[in-house]
Design brief:
CATH class of one domain: Mainly Alpha
Helix content: 55-70%
CATH superfamily of one domain: Winged helix-like DNA-binding domain superfamily/Winged helix DNA-binding domain
Strand order of the largest sheet: 1-2
Radius of gyration: 21 Å
Order of helices and strands: HHHEEHHHHH
Number of helices: 8
Number of strands: 2
Shape: elongated
CATH architecture of one domain: Orthogonal Bundle
Structural class: mainly alpha
């Protein structure tokens, strides 16, 4: 199981949008440059975030993106679902139906696969955990984990790029 790097970039960039005043936005070019990645790649990620209602785009020369919701209302799962989709990680192929006993019609297959039920249950527990972590929580954690200088420098980088 692996989420794409797009989820990681999305979460990082969304944290940068937390402090943006409601009448301003941050351009995709600035976000991409700060992360050291392709504008095209990040544009695709932000297109998905926009479609999911997590961010809204602001057109124009000074345009860019801003959060569409409060950081308390954006969970890690919301971001994962927007970037990756909500398709189950475990893809049951019903291989039990190809087993010897089922091929020979000696046995009837049970109505549901126990393995699939366990895997889906585990995925739901993971989704519940990701739903419990929000951008607001992440922002508070970063305030504790990173130096005050790094946090200030990051905020200053984006406030200067919009001037």
């Amino acid at each position: 199981m692996q989420y794409s790097v797009g989820v990681e970039y999305a979460l990082h960039c969304l944290v940068y949008l937390i402090d943006v005043p409601s009448n301003e936005s941050i351009g995709i070019k600035d976000l991409a440059e700060f992360q050291g990645l392709s504008e095209t790649f990040l544009s695709k990620v932000f297109g998905k975030l926009s479609k999911a209602g997590i961010v809204s785009s602001v057109p124009g020369v000074k345009g860019g993106y801003r959060l569409s919701k409060s950081p308390e209302d954006i969970s890690f799962w919301d971001v994962v679902k927007a970037v990756e989709g909500s398709k189950p990680i475990f893809q049951c192929k019903n291989i039990k139906d190809n087993g010897y006993l089922y091929r020979e019609n000696c046995c009837t297959a049970p109505s549901s696969c126990t393995i699939n039920l366990v895997m889906l249950s585990a995925e739901e527990k993971m989704r519940d955990f990701l739903r419990s972590k929000t951008l607001a929580w992440l922002n508070e954690e970063l305030d504790r984990d990173l130096s005050k200088q790094v946090r200030e420098d990051t905020r200053n980088y984006f406030s200067k790029s919009n001037i």
